């Protein structure tokens, strides 16, 4: 997992040499470098997948994620899985949706279950450098190129038939999701942790049924993909509530606005699903301190859960060491613990020790990730800390793929906690369809970075908006030079 971060940084760091305060570099170099880093034996697989419609690249159509006539056709996904033998019906699953936090929550849960000895499949999106990161089986590492290539050729004939019968309408995400589910079935996973891609109700992952779904999790509700999910927080909440299944417990992370939480609770009530809230009055999580452990920054936390409503759940964990930093990551950890306790309630064997160790051992490249002292040294740097989001240092390099107001605030809080008073340098990657003004207001106001390196990536038909322009809109004053390479 660490090699992913190092590969990314080795490509990015040359752009930081003798920079003025603001500079833009094309992201195409990052993308092409990532592709060159793929195993050559996957060439045919990538050629095949590139021919499919990829909404991650071209932008998601209006209302495509809503449970309406304009929403994605789940029937297409179900027919594809049926031709593959309905692999998604052969393992138990935890389904996670949410605007933010679902990837980290999935990582915490997968780590906890692996600590207990379960064979875990994990499906997440998007990825940093290789699409193989989206699938892991057993070890938690990305599926190997060899395994993915062999399995692709095993099912290719079925995929060809399905694409033809669906008149070419199957998408990149649908096909890759089906491949993940089929691989989980073949590898006989005990349980799969499945992260939804967009929304929930019409997401390709939402083919799981109450027969094999163990727990649904909704982490947060925020203003992202507004047009694709109906145009309001309420419609986004309804879309994500679509993963709730009859009789299956729902864990909600939060915090939520009261009327948004009520939408989720009403849907759960209609499905006779008990609700467990990570913001319940009986839940307490405290960050006690911050310091290095094994050469990497760590936050020390206490977690106490005493829930009586709907389900009777309890645990006390003292001095939990989280390498995933920030109060938002503590909240994600608590959400994962609540889901683990729901599994305990259903008869799954999960010890408190496995929960403690699973949280401690969770790592996720690009999510509030500090490189170790050794990794920083391997990059040829000294007296510098490197934080990727996605002795004391003289400066912090922050590589961020955060792109919403909420994630920018969470990152700013983490930087304030871990790098207070230090010189800051940011590398920011944002698509053109994000709210640059709100992002700039949250992340740049008050932190005063000395260097900001910007990349550009237009998505769909939307014209790029410069973060430099966004910074001016919120009165962030700093000298700048804008160079497109």
UniProtKB/TrEMBL annotation:
GO terms for cellular component: cytoplasm. The keyword Nucleotide-binding applies. Residues 96-245 form the Mur ligase central domain. Pfam families: Mur_ligase_M. Keywords: ATP-binding, Ligase, Magnesium, Metal-binding, Nucleotide-binding. InterPro entries: Folylpolyglutamate_synth, Folylpolyglutamate_synth_CS, Mur-like_cat_sf, Mur_ligase_C_dom_sf, Mur_ligase_cen. GO terms for molecular function: ATP binding; dihydrofolate synthase activity; metal ion binding; tetrahydrofolylpolyglutamate synthase activity. Belongs to the folylpolyglutamate synthase family. This is Mur ligase central domain-containing protein.
């Amino acid at each position: 997992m660490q090699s992913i971060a190092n590969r990314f940084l080795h490509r990015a760091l040359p752009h930081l040499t003798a920079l003025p305060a603001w500079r833009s570099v094309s992201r195409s170099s990052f993308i092409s470098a990532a592709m060159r880093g793929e195993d050559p034996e996957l060439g045919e697989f990538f050629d095949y997948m590139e021919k499919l419609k990829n909404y991650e690249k071209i932008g998601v159509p209006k209302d495509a994620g809503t449970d309406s006539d304009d929403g994605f056709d789940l029937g297409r996904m179900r027919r594809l899985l049926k031709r593959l033998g309905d692999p998604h019906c052969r393992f138990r699953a935890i389904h996670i949706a949410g605007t933010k936090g679902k990837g980290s929550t999935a990582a915490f849960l997968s780590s906890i279950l692996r600590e207990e000895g379960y064979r875990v499949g994990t499906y997440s999106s998007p990825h940093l450098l290789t699409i193989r990161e989206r699938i892991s089986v057993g070890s938690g590492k990305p599926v190997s190129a060899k395994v993915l290539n062999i399995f692709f050729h095993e099912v290719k004939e079925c995929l060809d038939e399905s694409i033809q019968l669906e008149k070419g309408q199957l998408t990149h995400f649908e096909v890759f999701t089906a491949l993940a589910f089929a691989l989980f079935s073949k590898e006989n996973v005990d349980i799969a942790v499945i992260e939804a891609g967009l929304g929930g109700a019409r997401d390709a992952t939402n083919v799981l049924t109450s027969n094999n779904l163990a727990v649904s999790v909704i982490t947060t509700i925020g203003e992202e993909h507004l047009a694709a999910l109906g145009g309001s927080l309420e419609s986004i909440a309804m879309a994500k509530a679509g993963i709730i299944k009859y009789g299956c417990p729902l864990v909600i992370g939060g915090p939520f606005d009261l009327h948004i939480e009520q939408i989720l609770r009403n849907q759960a009530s209609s499905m006779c699903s008990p609700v467990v809230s990570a913001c319940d009055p009986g839940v307490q999580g405290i960050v006690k301190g911050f310091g290095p452990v094994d050469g990497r920054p760590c936050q020390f936390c206490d977690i106490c859960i005493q829930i009586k409503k709907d389900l009777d759940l309890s645990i006390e964990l003292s001095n939990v060491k989280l390498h995933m930093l920030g109060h938002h990551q503590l909240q994600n950890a608590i959400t994962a613990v609540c889901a683990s306790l729901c599994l305990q309630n259903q008869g799954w064997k999960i010890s408190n020790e496995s929960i403690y160790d699973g949280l401690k051992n969770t790592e996720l490249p690009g999510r509030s990730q500090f490189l170790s002292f050794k990794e920083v040294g391997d990059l040829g740097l000294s007296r510098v800390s490197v934080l990727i989001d996605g002795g004391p240092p003289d400066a912090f390099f922050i590589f961020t793929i955060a792109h919403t107001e909420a994630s920018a605030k969470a990152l700013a809080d983490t930087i304030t906690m871990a790098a207070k008073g230090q010189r800051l340098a940011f590398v920011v990657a944002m698509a053109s369809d994000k709210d640059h003004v709100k992002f700039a207001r949250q992340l740049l106001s008050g932190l005063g970075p000395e260097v900001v390196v910007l990349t550009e990536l237009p998505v769909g038909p939307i014209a790029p908006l410069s973060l430099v322009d966004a910074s001016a809109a919120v009165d962030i004053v700093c000298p700048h030079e804008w160079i497109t390479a």
